[in-house]
Amino acid sequence: MKTSTQRTIKLDIASRFDMLEMVQTVLARAAEMAGFDDDAAHYLSVAVRESVINAIKHGNRGDENKRVTVILASQPGVLEVRVQDQGDGFDPAAVPDPLAEENLLKADGRGIFFMRQFMDEVSYSFPPRGGTVVRMVKRVHS
Known about the structure:
By secondary structure, this protein is of the alpha+beta class.
């Protein structure tokens, strides 16, 4: 996704939940620049918020000395988001299905589900230096 109209924003934040509002504010502007309407921007925001929360809570285990990197690459009609933590990584296939009967009433465990439902692409990579990178892509649908 490299073009002359691409705009990239990189945020390097502490593993603190009070950083979420700042990420959401920057994301809202990037979504606007990419051409998303309010509804699409809302669902995009939910997916990115869940990814950042997972990076802080599960990846970095709330360690404020560890960082979360959020990269937003927008161009007309497309927004790519990468969220990277400094944790130990995880197996996406081992995450319990939130729609399974035994999980329906649980208060958490829906973040990855929301990301997959609200984004057009979601993938995970695990760099050799550690951590998890969640890559999400959303396209404007007419």
